[in-house]
Amino acid sequence: MLVLVQIIILLGISLAFLPETWAALPAMALVLFIAASVFTFLGMAIGYIFSSEETGVLGSISMGSLLLFVSGVVLPIEAISPGLREISSFNPFVISEKIIREIFIFESSIAGVWVDLVILMGYAMVLFLVILIIESILHRQLVHKFLRRHQEVHRQQDQVNKNDV
């Protein structure tokens, strides 16, 4: 829900400065929603992997810096080695930027960028499944710990009750 509010604000501001972009608005909203979902799910997965808040923040900052560094924002993609350039073409930052540029600047349709959009949706689905799996494993462990602790408390209370009688 928060992502939708952010997208509405971003697109509203862009319409204030570029009113001729009404035609690209639905496609941009879709792309921004998928891209925001990918990065939200990536942050959640990193948060679940690490045990403390500090290491989770450090891991997410490191991952974001790495993805940003090889996205063409810090260094031009043309300046890096061909092997790393090929790998960076699958970077979610690069894919999102490419789709937004194609739709917004070159006025392409969704059909013109469908391959990159499918890759981005694939990232979102894979990360969502990873989060579901991690969440189910953590939930099972937490329930098991809770039940074991709850059972120990009841055993201690039973022992106290038997000793009192």
The number of domains is 1
Share of helix among residues? Answer: over 70%
* CA(first)-CA(last) distance: 58 Å
Average pLDDT, to the nearest integer?
Answer: 88
Give the overall shape, derived from the CA principal axes: elongated
* Computed structural class: mainly alpha
Give the low-confidence spans: none
Rg calculated over all Cα atoms: 23 Å
Quick description:
This protein is mainly α and about 160 residues long.
What does this structure look like?
Helices cover 78% and strands 0% of the residues. The protein has one domain (2-137). α2 (25-49) packs antiparallel against α5 (92-104) and α5 crosses α6 (114-164). It is mainly alpha-helical. The radius of gyration is 23 Å and the shape is elongated. The longest helix is centred in the last third of the chain and has 51 residues, at 114-164. The termini are far apart.
